[in-house]
Amino acid sequence: MTSNWITTRAWLLMLPLLIVMIAIIGWPLVDTVRLSFTDAKLVGTEGNFVGIDNYVKILSGSNFQRTLITTTLFAVLSVAAEMVIGVLAALLLNQQFYGRSVLRALMILPWALPTVVNATLWRLIYNPEYGALNAALTQIGLLDTYRSWLGEPGTALTALIVADCWKNFPLVALIALAALQAVPRDITAASMVDGAGAWSRFRFVIMPYLAGPLMVALVLRTIEAFKVFDIIWVMTRGGPANSTRTLSILVYQEAFSFQRAGSGASLALIVTLLVTILAVAYAALIRKSAGAS
Amino acid sequence: MERRSLTATIFVYIAALLLAAVILAPVVWLFIMSISSTTDLITKPLRWWPETIDLSRYGVLLSSAANSAGEAFVASLFNSLEVAGMATAAALLVAIPSAWAVSRTPSVGWSLYAVIATYMLPPVALAVPLYMALSWLGLLNNVFGLALVYLTILAPFTTWLMKSGFDSIPREIESAATVDGARLDQILRLITLPLAAPVMATAALFAFLLAWDEFFYALLFTSDQRAKTLTVAIADLAGGRVSDYGLIATAGVLAALPPLIIGLFMQRALISGLTNGGVKG
User: B101: distance to nearest CA of chain A, Å?
Assistant: First the structure.
């Protein structure tokens, strides 16, 4: 068999996938670009070419800027919390204790719970009249009167971050645990003989093993958090007073609630560009840290 | 095993109990809500365990009497099964040949990276044209249309998982069979695919869970019982004027059961899939 034939055969085998990808990803993406330069409506009018008008309006508007800040806050805070709690949980699960395998098995629960069910569950927990959080805090004396956790702009975003963190930290923990189990026992033992304390053992002996897998988890989680839609839509729909409105919610409102397909498309492309910048920056970071260790 | 001081041991157990409580409390509470009577759920101070166990809501949701809450729920359950099943089957069908081709022909590998990169795309970047196209094709509010759209998520993902699966099957086995005169289709059918069966099963499970979990496209592209999936039905319940919180919780429990069962029983396969780089969003 010639290498030419092997390459041709590979392309033939990939043909179905490529056709599907072009039809449902490639073409829609190109069409989003086209729409972004028009004032098309979702239904009915094809729209006219308006140049970069949509982009100018969006980038100079306060809506976009505020939403970008909310999204960044959500992504940074929830991912940071997931990373810290996840690594701590993994360090714990790497210790010897009775019931460890059961606890490890339980970690799969939040991950497996569908996102919408998780959002619904926390919405019930935060319920202002009958919710479990209000009841628990009142019964142990930490709270005098019931509060509307999702109804007040001051607490809604934090409440969302807690719900998101609960669902996603176990995944970080499982990834970190797999990495911890790859640390050779004799290395940690040797470092203890050499008198290394707990912190320096973590920093210099264990961390090098964790860094790579954690970096991958960090990248994927940050990109996911930046695109967040489901949990916020179900819990607050971006409210109260738009205090939890993220970029994906804003695109949804623009393109589908207000049916402005043109400016919705421009907004969607701005979000895509931001996600791409994140992904590329992270890829560079990973390559650098892989090269360093 | 290094020796631990008593204080450290006590600390480990306290931390383990705390972690178990954090993980379990919300899930257990969801279940308790589903079996509590409405009066128990709205008394103050709140009861944490129902006076009498009330399983009637499970009956309500799983009954198919016309125009009941159950009818809508059961319809969405079947829609979810259909959409997730069809999308998973279609994704594997296109992913397996391409994953094998990329695994055995490194010179076309760059195309795989192009496919994987699309996984990073926010769904909002495709939503408007997909909506217009489905509307034009008459596939809005249709399980086939939704399954087709789900391929945007499932196809890149399964290709990626299958490719690393094929990478772990030594190509020497295939070349040995070639020397013995086997044709390509025989090699794939009799050697490679049986060896790749566990990876295929993992990929199928992941794909099914992703589709079962999907909400954004389902919210946009479905509007009634003919195609609405479970996630949309539950969001409707949660956001609507339903005053029975127990009913919402019951719907949540039922929707969570298949993935929870898959998660607990397929733990090993899922975790190795997750830690090998496949991460569910």
Answer: 5
Q: How many domains does chain A have?
A: 1
Q: Do A21 and B118 touch (CB under 8 A)?
A: yes
Q: Where along chain B do its domains lie?
A: 1-54, 74-275
Neighbouring residues of A230: CB distance < 8 A, sequence distance ≥ 6? A115, A116, A119, B215, B216, B231
Cα–Cα distance between B202 and B177 in angstroms, integer?
Answer: 27
pLDDT at A293 over 60: no
Closest-approach residue (CA) in chain A for B265: A105
**A60 found inside a domain:** yes
The string of pLDDT tens digits covering residues B70-127 is 888 999 999 999 999 999 999 999 999 999 999 988 888 888 888 878 888 899 999 9
B195-224 pLDDT, tens digit per residue, is 898 889 889 998 999 999 999 999 999 999
Q: Cβ–Cβ of B108/A252 closer than 8 Å? A: no
pLDDT digits (tens, 9 = 90+) for A241-258: 999 999 999 999 999 999
| Cα–Cα dist A272/B116, whole Å | 15
Which of A107, A121, A189 is facing B30, going by the closest CB pair? A121
Q: Give pLDDT, residue A1.
A: 58
Domain limits for position A231: 45-292
Please report whether residue A24 resides in a domain. Answer: no
Q: What is the nearest CA distance from B256 to chain A, expressed in angstroms?
A: 5
Residues of A in contact with B145 (CB under 8 A): none
Question: Is the CB of residue A123 less than 8 Å from the CB of residue A150?
Answer: yes
| A109 sits in which H/E element | helix A108-112
Q: Which of residues 149-178 of A touch B (CB under 8 A)?
A: 166, 170-171, 174-175, 178
Q: How far is B65 from chain A (nearest CA, A)?
A: 25
Query: For residue A1, is it within any domain?
Result: no
B35: left (phi over 0), alpha (psi -120 to 50) or beta: alpha
Whether B128 shows a pLDDT value over 60: the answer reads yes
Half-sphere exposure of B172 (CA within 13 A, CB side): 1
Q: Which fold has domain B74-275?
A: MetI-like fold (1.10.3720)
Q: How many whole angstroms separate alpha carbon A66 and alpha carbon B247?
A: 36
Greater confidence (A45 vs B141) lies with: B141
Q: Is residue A273 part of a domain?
A: yes
Does residue A139 sit at the B interface (CB-CB below 8 Å)?
A: yes
Identify the CATH number of the domain in which residue A108 sits: 1.10.3720.10
Residue A286, pLDDT > 60, answer yes
Distances, alpha carbon A105 to alpha carbons A268, B163, B260, B263, in Å: 39, 28, 11, 9
Banded pLDDT at B280 (limits 50, 70, 90)? very low
pTM of the model: 0.91
Sign of CA dihedral B183, B186, B191, B196: positive
ipTM value:
0.91
